[in-house]
Design brief:
By secondary structure, the protein is an alpha+beta fold. The chain contains 2 helices and 9 strands, in the order ββββββαβββα. The protein has a domain of 111 residues: Elongation Factor Tu (Ef-tu), domain 3 (Beta Barrel). A 7-stranded antiparallel sheet has the order 2-1-7-8-9-6-3, covered by helices on one side. The longest helix has 15 residues. The termini are far apart.
């Protein structure tokens, strides 16, 4: 299986792809309600992810080709420039290398076996829109008539100022008699 990683004017191809893991996730929202179960009223597609186990070897070429392939991946990651990754199943655009690892042992003396995790980024654009008729002054709202307000007399009788417990006590007394 062949994979190509493209960044603007450069292109990087590997000798082999040991494994490709394509991931697409749909998040379904859930909201609790006062009674009953959660309600679901929306879903959104999360950014795509692609994990590649890549291999490059020095066999049949100059010594250091595998190191150069790994260094190229690191440079692509550090640049932060969106990449295009072409696989057998799909062409991914606007991908960044989220993580990159390459273990070394006796089996990789003249080769590199790297794992690269690519994650899609969503690029948006903004625009400034002018609004006519606005000045530096704050907007004023229309006035409303408050109507005529009448003073209400205050009742200072003992029953109005009586506490709730005293009123309850009096009610219980009258029921028991």
């Amino acid at each position: 299986m062949r994979v190509a990683v493209r960044m603007a004017a450069s292109r990087l191809a590997f000798d082999c792809v040991l494994k490709a893991e394509h991931s697409s996730t749909l998040t379904i929202t859930e909201h609790p309600v006062e009674s009953g179960g959660n309600i679901t009223d929306h879903s959104r597609l999360d950014p795509q992810e692609l994990i590649l186990e890549l291999g490059a070897t020095d066999a049949g070429t100059y010594n250091g080709r595998s190191v150069q392939a790994f260094q190229s991946l690191k440079a692509m990651q550090a640049s932060g420039i969106p990449l295009t990754v072409v696989t057998r199943l799909q062409t991914y655009t606007n991908m960044l290398i989220a993580s990159l690892s390459a273990p070394e042992d006796y089996t990789t003396m003249h080769a590199v076996k790297a794992t690269a995790t690519f994650r899609e980024i969503r690029i948006v654009s903004t625009a400034t829109v002018g609004v006519q008729g606005r000045s530096g002054e704050p907007q004023k709202t229309g006035s409303t008539s408050g109507g005529t307000k009448q003073a209400a007399p205050v009742d200072n009788s003992a029953t109005k100022n009586q506490s709730v417990l005293a009123g309850l006590r009096d009610t219980v007394k009258s029921l028991l008699q």
